[in-house]
UniProtKB/TrEMBL annotation:
UniProt similarity note: Belongs to the cytochrome P450 family.
Chain segments annotated as coiled-coil in the UniProt record: none
Binding sites annotated in the UniProt record for heme: C462
Gene Ontology molecular function terms on file: heme binding; iron ion binding; oxidoreductase activity, acting on paired donors, with incorporation or reduction of molecular oxygen, reduced flavin or flavoprotein as one donor, and incorporation of one atom of oxygen; steroid hydroxylase activity
GO cellular component, one term: cytoplasm
Gene Ontology terms: biological process: organic acid metabolic process; xenobiotic metabolic process
A Pfam family hit: p450
Protein name: Cytochrome P450
Amino acid sequence: MFNWCVRVNIIKIIHEFNECYILSAMMEWYQLITLLVVIVIYHIWTRRSLPPGPWGLPVIGYLPWLDPKAPYQTLSRLADKYGPIYGLWMGSVYTVVVTDVKMIKTLFSKDSTTGRAPLYLTHGIMKGYGLICAEGDLWREHRRFIHNCLRQLGGTKTGHRRSKMESLIMKHVNELLMCFSKNAGVSIDPLESLRHSLGSAINSIVFGKSWSKDDEEWIWLQDMQEEGTKQIGIAGPLNFLPFLRFLPRYRQTMDFLLKGKHETHKVYQKIIAQRQQNDFGDANRFVENILEAFLLEKSKKSEKEASLFYNDQQFYHLLADIFGAGLDTTLTTLRWYLLYMAQNPTIQDKIRDEIQDVLQGRPFNLEDIAHLPLFEASICESQRIRSVVPVGIPHGAIDDLVVDRYRVPKGTMIVPLQWAIHMDEKMWPNPEKFDPWRFIDEEGRVAKPENFIPFQLGKRMCVGDELARMLLFSFGANIVQHFSFVLEDKNTDFIGDCGITLTPKSHKIIFTKTNIVVKSNVVSE
Ligand code: HEM
């Protein structure tokens, strides 16, 4: 009897327990469903009126689907699917990609898009100093300062200082021609000589000095620049998932970049100290380089302004920005230019004929550009076919804004996808074909379509665009005038490696002196 009672009670207890358990389990499902509904509603609410785009995973967003070697290709394919403006999550950073030039123009003319994208590598390492990563008042002050500096130094379309800048550039062009001349008939990778000559021109503009080719400090600075640009790939996961810096692989990248920055600043410190020993004399005289202009500008500022805008950290970062932005982009453009010209000897001959017709054997000068449409068009075409910055340099929205009925929230990274714009088949039929005549109108003049934006657009557009053109024209025209050149290997890669810039892989070109007699002793060796 006792046993039976105990058994009945136990069965009752088990029943109650089961009911309780099932109820509580049901409650959990109920709560779980409620929670899911809330999450979905929240997600739909926060995504309301955002541009269309693909879904991603929590935390990492769309990153796993981006091709790490060619993110610009993945992003261009998404543009085909979602249209000229779409959004996606790159890790924790909401990103809006734009491939319509009119939209980019509208967006980038607004003050609210003059920020920079919240990328860990740029913000975490550069800390908002310099010009490229700066925002707000610091950016405005130094944008104005560098713009004025370049104008004073002659990096502008007009003005008497332009010819001074041209002579400076020509000195380094001649050095390059001599080097190619010494190696005539031999297959060489032009990278080293090009980087030295272009870098020397930029060094003279930035620091007022240049180094000899075999100077150890200069070789180190070049290596740092090259490796640094590779490591700070805009699409690198560390940019969007800062916690990755604790993993050994990414810690190495961070250590390399931070150490490189620190050591580079030490070199700059030394150059600045040497320059400070000299007296500036008349504060209103023309400055000769950016370093000197900075010191002069600082001396004119109040103590408060100087400590805010002209402090040491800003000085080093600014010098590094102008050196880096100036060298890396022009060097890469010229390398692609030589590659495409070497691959297309018939086009190359036509351009050389044009140069010969106009110059009649005299040395090239920048005023000749107005009479060399095919040559100018060939430079444009190489900037189009291989965008040096294929994903553009992203901006950051510093306020909520609306574009084409879509909401772009504050903090969004805005990517002007140059690759998609420059390779759009509707605008550029057969986009992989190197065809300079795309840039020539019916009257035979150079015509640059709206969809050609190598320097981007708007308030943060490249501040060195005119200097860049002066460098590209001077180096490009002189090389074509003095040498005919071909690829060593017909299977040379034309895809390149993508970091911040899209650079050619190493390759070899054979330069042969042309039989054009140029009335100058530049390449007589
Ligand atoms: C072919 C050569 C060049 C190309 C393709 C190029 C392209 C660009 C692009 C796409 C941007 C981003 C603009 C934006 O954020 O909207 C930029 C910014 C910049 N470029 Fe260039 N650039 C070239 C040469 C130069 C040169 C020679 C200098 C040297 C003075 C220079 C200095 C800068 C600076 C300082 C910025 C940042 C401007 C800012 O954030 O306000 N660039 N460039």
